[in-house]
From TrEMBL:
Originating organism: Anaerobranca californiensis DSM 14826
Presence of keyword DNA-binding: yes
Cell location: Cytoplasm
Recorded GO CC terms: chromosome; cytoplasm
Protein name, as recorded: Chromosome partition protein Smc
Length: 1179
């Protein structure tokens, strides 16, 4: 077997469909970094079933689909296929060529095919199992995997040795067998529990079944009495109902007479109301006229009052204007006097202003001379000030220096104190840390205790989860079995219903008639469809009717003739028709204890079919068995047809038909009954299914709850472990801090000593600076005295100068005041003259207004006289309208009295009607109650006994005395109560449990045998795996040493089992001794030596169990040129037996290749192949 072809389409960078034809020998794949070489190796791994996107260098599996480039759209799926030559039959499949295909779509859906036939991933794994080919086998070695083989733990190295030994399939089978064994043991435990529970319940169920039978007998007697009592009550209620109906009719007639009287009285009342409305209309008109007059009078009075007020206002206005003119004359006289006074005051002000201006000129000349003397003294003062500023600057410098020295002294003292405090603080901190360190260690001990406690809880939870999981599995098994039962019942019902719908079992004529005329109003149906037969009578009725079951009931003979013509015309056989309007029967009326009954009375059907049923079954007697039948036939002188429950027939005249009855040939009634029975059973099984589903849901909820608790516990344990680690970290930090504090204390002591020396030097500098300060202070005192003398002279001169200036300012203020007073007087004169002019104009206007107002007063007096005369006329008209209103009110009172008389009569009639209505309502209520009671008893018959009133009466229950019946019913009920709680399903349940126990015991025996068989199989597989692994390991060990010596040009390689006594689980260790070195472990080798050792191991395994092909991805990358050449030579030698596909960058490897495939990226992001057949070129 070898790999013939690799085909990629849309896989990673291979956007286009790309084929690689692979021949036996060595195929090398070369190309620059990033060109997509390793994508070919990923494709091989992926098609063989790799499920980890990370192993394929992606984040999710959809990443293997071509994602698009600058010039290409992304693809929606990726597909890879491998074609194998299987001509030697190494793969367990009957094909000489095997094509493995895997396809993935962007929605995440994956498909697998073997030779274009859809399959499962498991099928692909099983196909290549123990061939050395697979996603995790030694046939595919990717980049970095070489060193992973050597760096892995001994137990992990074992995996490739197991693949080489061919025991992987045994391990998988053992794993499945162990799982089956565990499931078998769990099933046995569950079976024991179920059997124990069922056997514990059986005696109780048996007792309940006996009690249930007794209960049913009492219940049947009770039913007969209760139905008879209900019928008695129904008869009494029907009589009362008829009497009540008669009383209702009488009261209804009386009510109609009263209603006629009410109608006549209402008519008279309406006529009176119409008259009173006319009177009220006339009254309203009079009121409107009166209101209009009142409105006109009020308007007239208002105008009269308004004119009187205007007249009064005019007279007052004339008086006011005359008074105002007198006041204006007085005001004009006073203004004239004030103007004369202001003219005199203005002349005095002008004289004073001239005198003050002459005096101020002399004072200003004297002040200028004094200002020049003051300025000269100030210049001398400035010179002294400059000198003292210089001295003050020197003093400030000295004081600053002193201050800085004092500050430095204070700082050094503070630093000394601070260092003292730091020393104390560090010592206290050291003590605190030691105490915290002790507390943390104690906390870690507490956490360890808590972790142990939580681990115990975790174990308990795991045990509970395991129990719940087992219960869930058991419920799932029950659910599947129940589903199978339900589906089986549904299938049976569907099959039987289809037979019923297709009229299977009917002859051609009836079948075609029922099909053709289905739904026709004149077609009632076949006899088998129109009657319902109790199950125990099925055989008897089928035999009694025979082929008449297929007789078709129609409404009349005309439709029957039409159908017969249709059957004859289409040659569809014959049929018998029973017209409802013609067929009548006379049933037997026998009361014989030896017979079960007349057949027509024992079956159920609609009342309209009673004539037909009496015709067919009314003269057929049903008996228990043939012996009783013979006795009855003899009694009635063989006049009637008699049928036994077993199907034996005694015909009229004495002929007997009997033997084994097989109703399957017809079974029309049995089929309908079987469908109903199956439906009932289906309902019961579906209820059971729902109950199991609920139990399963509850179990799954419990499993979820405990799983969540376990997850929380894991989380809490993680938190505790994290807390513990944090506290360890804190302890480490505290120890480091204590060590650091010790160093700080020593450093502080040294710094304190330096500060004490600095303090001594500062005190000496402060003493010298104080001496310099005293010299400057003396010089400052001398200059200050000189400044004081000059300041005193300046102050005297300034005082005189300021006095003179003040005097000048005072005179200037006086002049300004006089000027202001002058302008004020001028302004007042102007204003008074203007005021005088305005007053004179106002006096003139008032005289004119007085004349106009006197004229208006004359006009208003004439208008008032006219309005008074009009008011008198309107008052007379109002009195006349009031007289008419009084007359109409008298007439209205008379009509109102007549209306009241009519209303009193109506009230009496309405009361009579109300009394009749109350009586009618009472009777109707009584009637309704009777109907309600009748409905109640009818409903009781239906709900409790499944009988209509008609059916109950037809059963001819004997008349009962109510008191006696109630007494007997109470006795029977007491008997029922005495039985206590009764389980009616116990009879059937007992049968089922007994059958279930027998079935489960058989299952337990089967499971016990299966458990022993599985243990034998596992033991045999362990022996086989140990033998194969040991044999294979010894071969690999020898080959490893040989290959190692060839690749290293000497030295030796050695393989060792970590636990030789446990061959099935022992790890594998590798020891090597390169030429000129000691025997050492793999961890001490260089990178190149490790790679070459791993290659040696790979070739040793391939020599032990050659793989059909081997894929290598740059495994020689870390080798030097000499080692690459040896690797290439060995690869060439191995290629005679094994097909190699290798991705490489090394020249030596390329030279050993038979076919060279180059991978390039001419278009960004898209890989393209270039192939070279080196063998042909050499040829």
């Amino acid at each position: 077997m070898y790999l013939k072809k690799i085909e990629l389409n849309g896989f990673k960078s291979f956007a286009n469909k790309t084929e690689f034809l692979i021949n036996p020998g060595i195929t090398a794949i070369v190309g620059p970094n990033g060109s997509g070489k390793s994508n070919i190796i990923d494709a091989i791994r992926w098609v063989l079933g790799e499920q980890s996107a990370k192993a394929l260098r992606g984040s999710k599996m959809e990443d293997v689909i071509f994602a698009g480039s600058e010039g290409r759209k992304q693809k929606n799926y990726a597909e890879v296929s491998l074609v194998f030559d299987n001509s030697q039959g190494k793969l367990a499949i009957d094909y000489s060529e095997v094509n493995i295909i895997r396809r993935i779509f962007r929605d995440g859906e994956s498909e697998y095919y073997i030779n274009k036939t859809p399959c499962r991933l498991k099928d692909i794994h099983e196909l290549f199992m123990d061939t050395g080919v697979g996603k995790e086998a030694y046939s595919i070695i990717s980049q970095g995997q070489v060193e992973d083989i050597l760096n892995s733990r001994p137990e992990e190295k074992r995996i490739i040795f197991e693949e080489a030994a061919g025991i992987v399939k045994y391990k998988n089978k053992k794993k499945e067998s162990l799982k089956k064994l565990e499931e078998t043991e769990q099933n046995l435990v569950r079976l024991d529990d179920i059997l124990y529970n069922l056997e514990q319940d059986l005696p109780q169920i048996q007792q309940e079944a006996v009690k249930a039978k007794e209960y049913k007998n009492i219940k049947e007697k009770l039913k007969g009495l209760e139905v008879a009592l209900v019928l008695e009550k129904i008869n009494n209620l029907e009589k009362t109902y008829k009497e009540t109906d008669k009383q209702i009719e009488e009261k209804r007639l009386l009510k109609e007479e009263v209603e006629k009287a009410i109608e006549i009285t209402n008519s008279n009342k309406e006529e009176l109301i119409k008259n009173i409305k006319d009177i009220e209309l006339e009254l309203n008109n009079l009121r409107d006229q009166e209101l209009q007059l009142i409105k006109d009078l009020e308007g007239l009075k208002y105008n009269l009052e308004l004119n009187k007020r205007q007249l009064s206002d005019g007279k007052k206005k004339v008086e006011n204007l005359k008074f105002e003119n007198l006041e204006l004359e007085e005001y004009l006289r006073q203004v004239t006097l004030k103007i004369e006074e202001l003219d005199k005051k203005l002349k005095v002000n002008q004289q004073e202003l001239q005198n003050n201006k002459k005096l101020i000129n002399n004072d200003e000349e004297q002040s200028v001379k004094l200002k020049i003397e003051i300025d000269q003294f100030k210049e001398q003062l400035e010179i002294y000030k400059e000198e003292i500023i210089e001295i003050l600057n020197d003093l400030a410098t000295i004081k600053n220096e002193l201050k800085n020295l004092e500050n430095n002294k204070g700082k050094i003292i503070n630093e000394c104190h601070r260092k003292e405090r730091e020393l104390i603080s560090f010592q206290e901190r050291s003590n605190q840390l030691r105490e915290k360190l002790h507390n943390k260690q104690r906390e870690i001990e507490e956490i360890n205790t808590l972790i142990d406690r939580q681990n115990n809880l975790k174990e308990d939870l795991l045990e509970q989860i395991s129990v719940i999981k087992n219960n869930i599995e058991m419920e799932k098994d029950r659910l599947e079995r129940q589903k199978s039962k339900v589906n089986e019942l549904k299938s049976k019902i569907t099959a039987l219903t289809n037979l019923e719908m297709s009229y299977a079992g009917y002859s051609l004529g009836p079948k075609e008639t029922l099909k053709k005329f289905k739904g026709h109003p004149s077609l009632e149906g076949a006899i088998a469809q129109l009657l319902t037969v109790p199950e125990h009578l099925t055989t008897a009725i089928e035999v009694a009717l025979g082929s008449s079951l297929q007789n078709i009931v129609v409404k009349d003979e005309f439709f029957a003739a039409e159908v017969i013509e249709y059957l004859r015309k289409n040659k569809l056989g014959r049929a018998t028709f029973l017209p409802l309007n013609i067929i009548k029967g006379t049933p037997l009326n026998l009361a014989d204890p030896d017979i079960i009954g007349v057949a027509s009375n024992l079956v159920h059907y609609e009342k309209k079919y009673s004539g037909i049923m009496d015709f067919l079954l009314g003269r057929i007697i049903i008996v228990k068995n043939l012996d009783i039948g013979l006795k009855v036939a003899k009694k009635y002188n063989y006049k009637y047809k008699i049928v036994s429950l077993e199907g034996d027939v005694l015909n009229v005249g004495g002929a007997i038909t009997g033997g084994n009855y097989n109703g399957k040939s017809l079974g029309l009634i049995q089929r309908a009954q079987e469908i109903e029975g199956l439906k009932i059973e289906l309902k019961k099984e579906e209820d059971g299914l729902a109950q199991i589903q609920r139990a399963l849901t509850k179990g799954e909820e419990e499993y979820k709850k405990f799983s969540e608790q376990l997850e929380q516990l894991h989380h809490y344990l993680g938190m505790l472990q994290g807390d513990k680690n944090n506290k360890y970290q804190e302890i480490l930090l505290m120890e480091q801090e204590i060590k650091s504090i010790k160093g700080h204390i020593e450093l502080i002591k040294g710094e304190k000593k330096i500060f004490e020396n600095d303090l001594k030097e500062l005190e000496e500098k402060i003493s010298q600076t104080l001496k310099n300060e005293k010299v400057k202070e003396d010089e400052k005192q001398r200059i200050t005295l000189s400044i004081k003398e000059i300041n005193e002279l300046i102050i005297k001169k300034n005082n005189f100068y300021e006095s003179l200036k003040s005097k000048i300012v005072s005179k200037q203020i006086t002049i300004a005041s006089l000027e202001q007073e002058y302008h004020s007087i001028k302004k007042q004169l102007t204003m008074l003259n203007e005021e005088k002019r305005r007053t004179e104009i106002k006096f003139k206007e008032n005289g004119e207004n007085i004349n106009l107002t006197v004229e208006e007063i004359g006009r208003l007096q004439k208008l008032i006289d006219d309005l008074s005369n009009e008011n008198l006329k309107l008052e007379k008209l109002k009195f006349k309208i009031n007289e008419q209103q009084v007359n109409h009110h008298v007439l209205k009172r008379e009509v109102d009295e007549k209306i009241q008389q009519a209303e009193d009569k109506l009230k009496e009639l309405e009361q009579s009607k109300e009394i009749l209505l109350t009586k009618l309502n009472t009777l109707n209520l009584k009637k309704s109650k009777i109907l309600l009671e009748l409905d109640g008893y009818t409903e009781k018959l239906l709900s409790e006994y499944y009988l209509t009133v008609g059916e109950a009466k037809e059963l001819n229950y004997p008349e009962v005395d109510e008191k006696e019946a109630i007494k007997e019913i109470n006795i029977l009920r007491e008997d029922l109560k005495g039985l206590g709680e009764v389980n009616l399903g116990a009879i059937e349940e007992y049968k089922k449990i007994k059958g279930k126990i027998d079935f489960l015991k058989e299952q337990k025996n089967d499971l016990t045998r299966a458990k022993l068989d599985l243990k034998k199989i596992i033991l045999e597989m362990d022996r086989q795996m140990a033998s194969q692994f040991e044999e294979s390991f010894e071969k690999i060990k020898v080959y490893f040493n040989e290959v190692f010596q060839k690749l290293f040009n000497g030295g030796r390689g050695y393989l060792r089992l970590t636990d030789p006594e446990n061959l099935l689980e022992s790890g594998v260790e590798i020891f090597v001794q390169p030429p000129g070195k000691k025997l050492q472990s793999m961890t001490l080798l260089s990178g190149g030596e490790k790679a070459l050792t791993a290659i040696a191991l790979l070739f040793a395994i391939l020599k032990t169990k050659p793989s059909p092909f081997c894929v290598l991805d740059e495994i020689e990358a870390s080798l030097d040129e000499a080692n690459v050449d040896r690797f290439g030579a060995f690869l060439k030698e191995m290629s005679k037996e094994i097909q190699f596909i290798i991705v490489t960058h090394r020249k030596g490897t390329m030279e050993s290749a038979d076919i060279l495939y180059g991978i390039t990226m001419e278009e960004n992001g898209i890989s393209k192949q270039i192939s070279v057949n080196l063998e042909k070129r050499v040829g």
